[in-house]
Amino acid sequence: MSAAPRLKSVPSLCIYGSMYDQENHALRESRGNMKLYQAPVSRYGSMHSKFAFLFYETGVRIAIFTNNWINEPFLTNGVYIQDFPRKGDKFAKTTTFEEELVKYLRKVGGPLGGSAGKMESYFPNQNLPSNIEESIRKLPPSKTISLPASLTKAQRHAAHKLCENLKFVHETSREGPQKNCLVVTNPGSATKNLSPPPMSHDSTPTVPAASVSYIEMIRNFDFSRANAILIASVPGKYKTEEHRWGQSALRHHLQDVPHLENSKVLCQFSSFGGTTQKHVEELTEAFSTTSDPTSTSPSIVEANSIIVWPSLENVLVSYAGLRSGHAIPAQLKNVLTEGGEKNSFILKESIAKHLHLWRSGGDSDRTLAAPHIKSFTRFSEDGQLSYFLLASHNFSKSAWGQIQLKGKQLSMESYELGVFFKPSLFFESDDETGEDENECFSCTPTHPKLGLFGFVNTKKLRYPKAAVKLFSDASVSGACPEGTLLCPVPYALPPQKYGQGDVPWCSDFSHANKRSFAMPQVTHPCP
Question: Where does substrate bind (predicted)?
Answer without folding.
Answer: 50, 374
